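User: My instructor asked us to take a sequence, write out its structure as tokens, and then describe one feature of it. I'm not sure where to start. Here is the sequence I was given:
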Amino acid sequence: MKDKQQKDNKYKYKFSRMRALLITLLGVLMISVIIGTSFGLYAVGVNFAMTEITLDKDIVFQTMEGFGASSAWTYQALGLHEDEKLKDNAMHMLYGESGLALSNFRYNIGAGGAESGGYKDTLRGAQSFFMADRFNGDYSVFADVDNYDFTKDSGVIDLFERALALNNIKEIVFFANSPHYLMTKNGKTHANEKGKSNLKEECYDAFADYLLVITQYLYENIVKKYDGNIEIHISPVNEPQWDWGGAGASQEGCHYEPNELAKFYDVFYNKLTAHNEKYSTQFKMDIFESGNYKFNERKAKLRDYLNAFRQYEWFEGIDSISVHSYDAELDTNLRRTFRNYVRSNCEGKRIVMSEVCVQKEGVDNGIDMGVYSARMIMRDLNWLDVTSWNYWLSVSVYNYEDGLIYWDQSNSLSVTKRYYTMGHFTKFIPQGSMRIKSRYSDSFGINGINYVAFLRPDGSIVIVVVNNSKNSRQIKVRGAYDDVRETLTTADVNWQSQEYQYGGYLSVPAKSVVTYEFMPPLENVEE
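Assistant: Let's start with the prediction itself. The structure tokens for your sequence are:
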């Protein structure tokens, strides 16, 4: 009898559990249906209703310092081309008012890979100004400007001067991918082994001298001819986490472990401080050109590098942290995580997007790639709070998504839609513009609209809108002015402009990037 009762209780217990599980599953199903239906209705409503952007220009975030691109690899060949008009056109397309009006010039200080060799693509071994025959084993020779020949990299210098002459450049970053090959452990501009530092520790001072001598000469003899107030930065290291070595190394590069990089930066910063005092300059040190900002990637070692830096006093004197956006694509969580970490652990330091390109073979001329590139910029502005944004190659010769302009190495230049969609930011968000707070009624982003809003120094408001949808959208903007200048890029038009009175809504064509400039009434403009 006892066994039967236990058996009955066992069956009752199982039945009770099954019934509870069934009720739970039915509940979850009903909630899912309700949520799905609500989300579906929301999506349908967003698709057919006008969505609203509400601006609050009294709450501001980062202040923009500019947009730019790099001179690496291609300039040393393009600058030697005999066609003067070709070279002028290239710089006008990048730094001129009729082009992108870029304000940041990233100058690549070569490590002499063109001399030491070892690269299948000869352009990726850059020229060096240092005269190698002056080296006799004493590294102090790198501190003497008389041991440098500044005609050696004349192609880059030529294009540098043409860009400066257009009077739009506000900032120059002199950056290095590797120390000079005479300072490295293997006499090359990349290591023999992957993931090994190639800079001799006894050459920390020499490498610092090398960068300072070159920067000072170019500033005194070239930059100051055009504008002595251009801000000068020196970035000694590029993507220190990555391997940069081994068989098949394709370009100049140098790996650094966190502690050794922090130690080198300490040497460089002290040298830079003494240099500024001696020459009454205000050069700044840039760090650390991180290969990405992915805290969830072990190889990136972001915390390790930043923790190592914080052990030194020089870290307090740095006002920004430069990162690259490779492999982050459109991920907002990665951006938010890094931004919040910097806010909490690196107080007062700005974030600079110093290099990014779409990592994809081929050259895509379509609007989809243009829209994608614009969304990358927009997310770095909105979610990473970057104060400067720079594409990788300003001029490319490669069959890759790494350029703003493509040169066929003869007499022809071409651009893709990315060039035009990037221009929606570079041409209309000048230095000193402040990103302003806004709210958007389509909080889930169902309708394919992304945007960013800035208050410009003249009091006008600019909103860049990206429509990634296959359908046109209507949006209403609250808190703007009546006079609107619209600039549009679609698959069919580039930077098409018109002016009108804001009538209560804006029509955003399918697969487009649009810049709206809201001009304040004259009585509201400060004199």
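For the description part of your assignment, you could build on this observation: The CA atoms of residues 51 and 443 lie 10 Å apart. Try explaining in your own words what that tells you about the chain.
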